[in-house]
Amino acid sequence: MAAICIAALSATALAQEQELPAIQVIANTPLQGSGVDRDKIPSTTSSVDAADFQRTYSANPTDTLFRRIPGVTLSDPNGNGAQQEIRYRGFAASPAQGTPQGLAVYMNGVRINESFGDTVNWDLIPTNAIQRADVLTGNPVFGLNALGGAISLQMKNGFTWQGFEQELQGGSYGRVQGAMQYGAQSGNWSSYIAAQAIHDDGWRKASPANLGRFYGDVGWRDDRAEFHIFSSLASTSFGVAAATPIQLLNQSWNSIYTTPQTTRNEMATVGVNGKYALTDTWSLQGNLYTRLFHQTHVDGNDADIERCSAASSFPGSLCIEDDGFARPVPFVGAAALAFRNQFVILNANNQPIPCPAGAGNTCATVPYGTIDRTDTQSKTFGGSLQATNDDKIFGHGNHFVFGASIDNGNSAFNANSTLGFISPDLNIGINPAIPGNGSIIHTLGNVGYTPVGINTKNTYYGIYTTDTFDITDKLAATAGGRYNIAKISVLDVMGTSPDLNSDSTFSRFNPVVGATYKIAPWITAYGSYSESNRAPTPLELGCSNPTKPCLLESFLVSDPPLQQVVGHTYEAGLRGTAPLWGGSLQWKAGLYRTDSDNDIVNLASFIQGRGFFQNVPQTRRQGAELSTEYKSDRWLVYSGYSFIDATYRFTADIASPNNPMADPDGNIHVVTGDRIPGIPQHQFKAGAEYLVTPEWKVGGDMVAVGPKFFVGDDANQNPKLPGYVVVNLHTSYQATKNVTLFAVVNNLFNNKYALFGTYFEPQGTAKAGLPIVLTDQRTEVPGQPFAVYAGIRVKL
Fold first, then answer.
1. ω before 356 within 30° of 0 (cis)?
2. Mean pLDDT across the stretch 70-83?
3. What is the Cα–Cα distance from 288 to 383, expressed in whole angstroms?
């Protein structure tokens, strides 16, 4: 499609050159300064606006980003559509603690990667309050985590949106959703509020979602200054159903595995931002903010619990995986030994728990499980200040920015496990008749069960500059960089995990250089080189010892050092905008490569359900992105294709004990060129909307996603998670000047597909009385089937 459009442009551009659209200005830093011509940015930029978010009729920001931006992929490790993750060019912005994060996300210039694990909780953002989302690559000015790029959300205010709008919708699987927004301007003052409330029973068992979120803004401006006070509040809760063994999915597509699995998030943010024109060419931009975040997580899991061997210090008691042998630690470059014996389970009084009588090393027919609970409370405050200058230099245009930022976070993390009983419906509860049930448990040899309480502090400093200089009226050069300092401390407050105590400092200067050349009014070439880094998070630093693995999203048990990740990104491409057939066409075609040194990966432990973080020497993500978008008075048509080749660039054994092809030590052999799991190589997206009459719109979109390897199949030895195609339709009818009716059909053809796949130990629930014997180690998070929603929107 891109070739056809370019050919059409060649035939029409010269005749219509005088009709070229106005210059599109975009901020090239987190703070919104005077901005720079998008065509002068030497890397890829993509944007979706408020109309795009409204067009999907989705309460999830991730849906719109996935459908509209070619390189964005969607995954769902949590198993709830309201808490999905996105990856851009293979780098994640995920709500799942345990996912190494590689995208920096900002809202009104405030970094919203959470303090403890750099997670991004998309469920906390009201979609109706988003004015625009910009996705930018190859720009270290956005600070830590911008390995794959940055996402900058600009929210509405009373200067940019006026009126009153209320919306109600409902439909499949008990969905009930209400939203409102109000904006007004009076002289120099403005006000804006938006709210959303959503309840969804969930189409899978035990997977409801309840979301309440609010955004407000009060602003003031004159001809030289503009200031805003804004706030964001949210309270959300989910049934997080996670991945299900495929044998259970074959019996029922809405089946789940062990429960309970619930998450509750609460957030409050208050901030001030503003800009002031010192002169006609010098201006200041800045912000201050504070953010409170509280998450509680309850997770029912199977447990590999057996009778301690006769050679144990506590024969006949409960032990974890008492196999009685030693083997190499399963991670790259290991030199120590990890012993899988003497992991004796203790109750709250540090006494062993007797194992009910049974044959061999089994505990009768008791299906032991655990109920794991975590509580994370974070307080973050910070600010940014930058100066922008647009003075000409020797008669040439120039855009110069210099700024600094600080983000300080304090987190309190607590976790414990309670010994439970797995029922035949896979619910894990308490049975007082079973020894140890209901006890908060410990182990001899801390392997992720001993209660943990830690306080962490992380302070991130950044100083940055960038300059775009017009060498000629067609050629522009950009140069700049950012110096990052990350100070992270971890303190064990319970005395149970002294290995966690640490103080770490990471620092690095990351440069960027690039250029753009306007070949013709409708075509611009660009190229750049940039570097970026991210420091290990407090979560990762506390869970990096393979001999003391963590129950991810739960326990931190040891703290050997991790190295920071450094990315090297090369980009080149063509893009353009031109009038065409009475409308406007935008198109892009680009190539990129990011080599990440000391990348951090999440590896599975030989202790069931546990894992740990480790550096690997290098990974590479490279590929191509193509996109077109045509707009006219009656039409919107868009398409996009992305190719992502994400590979490991080293050869070594790494841990994946649940992988069907793992060796007797639980390792798989990775060689250079093996593809990183969970990232599809190919994606194609397309959509259209047509104004049939002045009142009636019809539209649809489709995404086609190629196959990808299951998470845990780093050596690429097993069958892939199949690709899929999903088609969605929508329509709206403006019944009166103020009332619009709308309807949405998602997954029109009711295709069965999976968004996420990994492996598990099928013996963990063997005693639970399931109707089938689980033997296949694959698990999947299924995608939502056919669904219909309808609603009404009133705008005054």
1. no
2. 90
3. 4
